[in-house]
Structures are given as C-alpha cells and as structure tokens.
Amino acid sequence: MAADLNSIAEPNRTVKKTIEWQTTVKRWPNGRRTARRNWTNSLKHFEIEYDGIDLTTLTALETFFNAHQGEYATFTFTDNHTGITYTVAFGQPTFDRTMVIANSRGVYKVQLKLVEDVPS
Fold first, then answer.
1. How confident is the model over 66-115, as pLDDT tens digits?
2. How many Å apart are CA 43 and CA 103, to the nearest integer?
3. Which three-class secondary structure string do you get for the chain?
4. Is the per-residue pLDDT at 53 higher than 60?
5. What are the chain's domains?
6. Tell me: the pLDDT tens digits for 82-92?
C-alpha cells in the first residue's frame, strides 16, 4: 500500500485549502468577550483535483482510497503550492469519478477532499 498520495500522481491543482481553528468564545452581559483556544494547532482541509487522467491512474487512486478504507486510515500528502507534506485522511466516505471523454480508453476527472490529522 502506497503511503503517499503524491506517489500515484501529482494532482493537477489544489482547488481549495482551508485553515480551521477551534475556539470557544463567550460574550458577557457587559459586552466583554473571552476566548479559549481548544486546539494548539490549526487544522488544514484540502480539495484536490486530478483532471484528464487515464484509466490506469484512476484505478490506482481508487485502489489507494479503498486501501485506506475511505476516511479511516491516514497517509501523507504534499501540497503542490507550498511543498509542505501533511499527514491526512480522506475527508469523504465515497470515491466519485467523472468520465470527461468517453472513448475506448476513457479520460477521467476525480476530486478528493483531505483533512489533516493533527497529532494529540
């Protein structure tokens, strides 16, 4: 089982990167605000896209998804914009593909959601 998603194929692009913080905020009757940080690190979410891939690459991505049992197991992913490698899991329970060109070999598009796994 491949441990790094980028070892299968580089995504065409990172469509979206979101940074999330978990904070508890309380507003007091006098207008004062207090905040408590629930996490010591931010959590990153990625949406990546593989566009124009062949059946071999599609099959490798689907095998990788199934080997990690959807959202269950973690693996590494390198953000192609920053070069930073993150430990992530799939952020979706399903693997969806779109056939872009219907011919004898097929050309496909896959979008995947990833969520960083922050160590405790």
1. 999 989 999 999 988 888 999 999 999 999 988 888 776 779 999 999 99
2. 41
3. CCCEHHHCCCCCEEEEEEEECCEEEEECCCCCEEEEECCCCCEEEEEEEEEEECHHHHHHHHHHHHHCCCCCCCEEEECCCCCCEEEEEECCCCCCEEEEECCCCCEEEEEEEEEECCCC
4. yes
5. 5-116 (2.40.30)
6. 889 999 999 99
pTM: 0.80
Burial class (CB in 10 A: 0-12, 13-18, 19+), 8: middle
**φ, ψ of residue 43 in degrees (nearest 5):** -115, 130
pLDDT of 48: 92
* CA-to-CA separations, 72 to 35, 75, 118, in angstroms, rounded: 32, 10, 14
Token pair 């199934």 is at which residue?
A: 66
Q: How far is CA 81 from the centre of its chain?
A: 14
Give the integer Cα–Cα distance in Å for 86 and 94. 21
